[in-house]
Amino acid sequence: MVPCQIMSYDVDAAEQWCFLVGLYSPDQKNINSQMQLYNIERRQQQLLEGYAGCFMNLPLTDGQPSFSNSLFAFCEKKAAESVHRLHIMEIGNPAPNQPKFKINTEIAMAPDAIGDFPVLMQVSPKFGLIFIITKLGYLFMYETSRAALIYR
Question: What CATH topology corresponds to 4-151?
């Protein structure tokens, strides 16, 4: 059995969703991660290969303003791949006649930061920004509705 270190845990504002992040090293060289996203009401889980995550309630604009009940953002890196991705998805009920919001983008990790990975995600609801900090201290800032990189 491979030992696992719990990195973070959070619950959304409505206390309907929670997630848990654990890190493990199968070969003592690489660090992999597993995330469990859990719906408390339905008692359903989804397993993700995520390093960091956060819940948020943000307005989404798509020509017409609408309000999302709940969004979940997480940084994913599959064990067999070298690409890190930021996923932002709606986990609450979407507005009537609207599809659930879902967007993702590649996180451009620094080429000199081999083995770096996200360890913390925070959101600024007032400005609609997501902040990601990596193990080696890099800061990424993304605009939420388009998953657009603003600063690295």
Answer: Methylamine Dehydrogenase; Chain H (2.130.10)
CA distance 21 to 81: 19
Q: What is the DSSP letter of 77?
A: -
State pLDDT tens for residues 3-59: 789 999 999 988 999 999 999 988 888 888 999 999 999 999 999 999 999 999 876
Place of tokens 């998805």: 89
- Cα separation, 75 vs 107, in Å, equals 8
pTM attached to this predicted model: 0.88
Nearest one of 38, 45, 44 to 17, comparing CA atoms: 38
Six token digits for residue 134: 């990596």
